[in-house]
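tl;dr need the bound structure. longer version: we got a ligand (calcium ion) that a collaborator sent over and nobodys looked at where it sits. i said id run it. heres the input, straight from their email, havent touched it
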Amino acid sequence: MWIDADRDGIQDEGEAPVEGVEVTLLDSDGEVVATTVTDADGYYVFTDLPISTEFTIEFPTTITVNGETYPLTTAGAGSDTGLDSNPDQNTGRYSFTTPATGENSGEPGQADMPTIDAGYTPPEPQMPVTGTDGALTLVGLAAGLVLAGMVLAMLRRRTPA
Ligand SMILES: [Ca+2]
Ligand SMILES: [Ca+2]
């Protein structure tokens, strides 16, 4: 699990792992099978799963970092499944079927399905007022002045000489 600082949906060099986030494993009936929490390296693992069985992993749809809400990043970005984020941004869920064979190792780097991961993006920065925004505001203001001028002109015409 990691912070997708540049919001490209890909785990890039230098993007920080996320520790202490709960990950839930559900069976095909939606029942909770197990929960775990990511470690300091953003790593989590579920072991002793039956082979060739459908499961769903549920990640939080948002996490809180320094008091700010970080939503899930785009799923399935790029071409490397080892570097993309898997869960649906709206549900936090990703379904898969366990392989027919495996090592059942809980060691980092030795998992049978090592590519199911989740990235979270920092909130969009508050954009400063740009030239475009300023121009739009000026146009709006100018239109308002024209309208005010028309109203004044009408009032003048109605004023008796
Ligand atoms: Ca990234
Ligand atoms: Ca992935």
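gonna send this back to them w/ a short note. The mean pLDDT is 87.
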